[in-house]
Amino acid sequence: MATPMYARYIPPKAKNTRGKASVSLPVPEISQAKEQPGKTKQQSKDQPKKRKRETKDPLKEKEDDVTIPSVLKASEVEEVPAKKEHRSKDRPKKRKREREEKSHDSEDNGTKLKKHKSVLSKFEKVSKIAGAARESAVDIPAEEIKESPTELHGLTPLPQPEPVPEPEYHPTFSALPPWLAKPTTVSSSAKVPFADLGLDARLVEQLEKKGYKEALAVQSAVIPMLLPGLHQHFGDICVSAATGSGKTLAYILPMIEGLQGRVLSKLSGLIVVPTRELVTQARVVAEQITVGTKIKVGTAVGNISFPAEQELLVKKDKRFDPEAARLLHDKANEQLRTGFVERGGIMGDLMHMPPGHVPHYESSVDILICTPGRLVEHIQSTTGFSLSDIRWLVVDEADRLLDDSFQEWVDVLMKALEVESTSEQALARRKIISRNPWLKPERQLTKVVLSATMTKDLSKLGSLKFRRPKMVIVENEDQNIHSCAPGTDMTGDGESFELPPALKEWAIPVGTGLDKPLYLLKLLQTNILSQWEMEKTDTPTVADVDTESSASSSSSSDSDNSDSDSASSVSDSSEDSSSEDESDDSGVDTKKKLSNPKHRSKITPKNQADISSRVLVFTNNNENAARLSHLLAILHPPLKNKLGTLTKSAATKSSQKTLAAFATGKIRILIASDRASRGLDVPDLGHIVNYDLPRSVTDYVHRVGRTARAGKEGQSWTFFTKTEGRWFWNDIARASAIRRAQKVDRAIVDAETLNEEKRTTYEAALRELRVAVEGSTGRAVGR
Ligand SMILES: Nc1ncnc2c1ncn2[C@@H]1O[C@H](COP(=O)(O)OP(=O)(O)OP(=O)(O)O)[C@@H](O)[C@H]1O
């Protein structure tokens, strides 16, 4: 009796009693039994077993699945427990009836029908109970009850609901402090005449002589904040402004204005920059502005010996002060007694002093421009080098410098700045201030921190210990600014950078990258250098090329200006050749064929001296720069005297020579490592080539920022290989962190059209280079 009732017996039209619910039920086996009276008891006993076996068949199972719902109506499911209860109560009666039936059966000659009658009577009872239950339930018209159509499914997964999109998270708070979260923004078009900035007339005149008629946006915003007046900010300033926007004058002018009346030299302004080239560059700007004043500008970069640099920075003298002399001598005696004798320094100098005198040190410079490494050396080892009178501290290229933990320069500098001045005037003033606390403190140190890619990392900025800081951001408010993430501005929590508005960026696919030198040669030929520049020197033979000294030789040699008419060795058939797009990026911007004559420089005697047709080529390391320089010189010998290299390993003097030659146009192609990517200002530089892809977004921003400076036009060309394409387009060309006025366009260089002779020369050059490098270092050379 374990089989449920509905499984054992299902009546033919179960519930159509009141013309309401009409449910078609499976044909009941009992009726079959009725119709087949010849079936034996054994057969009917076997029936459940047979069904059990049948249910093992999956197809059968499916059939059951389909039929069962029509049987299992809610009212009937509820009937089962009701029936059970009833049965347990009526058990004695039932047995009695069964006995009666049995006796009747025996009377009826033991036919099977009697047994079925008992089952039928049970069913009638159940039906009565179900009928009563149904009467108490709400009547539903039969036509409203529809059988749900059977859905058949194959093996394909059932359709799933659309995933609910995650709601966009717009924090109503910022993790940054208010001065960083809500910076002061300045439009890059907000220019003001220098005379309106509160600068001294002499300074304005000096600037006009240089051809600067009005202050650029960053200067118009920052100078008034640093000078006494209505807009003065009593605290420190962080500045974020695009490359070439004029940040150098924005900090140098107020510093010079503030120190003009100075009679005695005191080290009052300290400018820290990352490279020696930038020290030299900032010094040139400062010296141009200080002409006619007593302000002395010094540098510390390590291009001369350390003792020589010490002498240049600090003047040593003697001062009659018996009391101070006695104290110092006591200290010296104590050191002798304990054995801990200080070598050099003030104790060393004391030995050479006449009785009653002490050594006296004075700064030889008012403004010091230096690299962080050399600064730390002077703080730690130069006697009399004191930062206690510093009023201006400038950290240019701040994000780069704060990344640099070299010699823990920030900590050393901050400690040195905390040391109070021990000069007599300072001591006297401190005495007065202690009695009159409302008086201004003796020294007010203002920190100015600048970059085109300013960090918002508090852990880095915090190391500079700002006092009431303010962030100033200069941004282009042009509606056409292309920012891949709509609404990206420079004031959010994330870091975002702006490119110069007049910069045109191009991206050039270079296949696997194996023939990059040939691509570069073709690009120089078609779009950067004029034909005159490509061909003007006598063509030397491959053997003539001095690989090691191409940079220095080119900087010193003044190329012969004969207007050579010799036929170009570079094929110019690119116009009709169809270029194949081998890059893997998708949906890329307009493709431009660079061999189109309208992109070419016109060959006229006039533009022979056009220095904007110079190019700065960036490689990823010194080795690549030297190798490329060598290959180009062999590939196209007329370029030999127009090539220079600028790498970290080059001596300061040689780098300065190379840079000067590049600035004056003697060198047309400067191949450099990332050393040249920060801050370098080469006036009217027209082109940048990223021969190797930069390693980061910030590197890209600084590299391309060497052109299109101070509102002038410039172009950048970035080579990308098949494997680099995705990164370049996603992280640089369409990066939400970069705001640009013009989108990056794709350009095709037909390096294939370079003639066979060039390819043969290229192969020969590679072999020669391999032999040269393997010979000297035992290493293999790639291209
Ligand atoms: N007021 C001005 N008018 C015209 N030109 C200017 C003015 N001020 C500066 N310049 C020129 O702008 C160029 C860029 O200046 P500067 O080197 O200070 O830029 P920068 O913002 O420091 O760039 P980077 O971030 O790359 O270091 C220089 O060649 C400079 O001579």
Automatic annotation (TrEMBL):
Alphabetical list of InterPro entries matching this protein: DEAD/DEAH_box_helicase_dom, Helicase_ATP-bd, Helicase_C-like, P-loop_NTPase, RNA-helicase_DEAD-box_CS, RNA_helicase_DEAD_Q_motif
Biased composition (Acidic residues): 573-587
Top EC class of this enzyme: hydrolase
Biased composition (Low complexity): 542-572
Locus of motif Q motif: 192-220
Biased composition, class Basic residues, residue ranges: 84-97, 593-603
GO CC annotations, alphabetized: nucleolus
Residues annotated as domain Helicase C-terminal: 589-770
Catalytic activity: ATP + H2O = ADP + phosphate + H(+)
SUPFAM superfamilies on file: P-loop containing nucleoside triphosphate hydrolases
Location of the protein in the cell: Nucleus, Nucleolus
GO terms (BP aspect): rRNA processing
CDD domains linked to this entry: DEADc_DDX51, SF2_C_DEAD
Domain DEAD-box RNA helicase Q per the UniProt entry, residue ranges: 192-220
Function: RNA helicase.
Record family assignment: Belongs to the DEAD box helicase family.
Protein name per UniProt: ATP-dependent RNA helicase
Organism: Mytilinidion resinicola
Taxon lineage: Eukaryota, Fungi, Dikarya, Ascomycota, Pezizomycotina
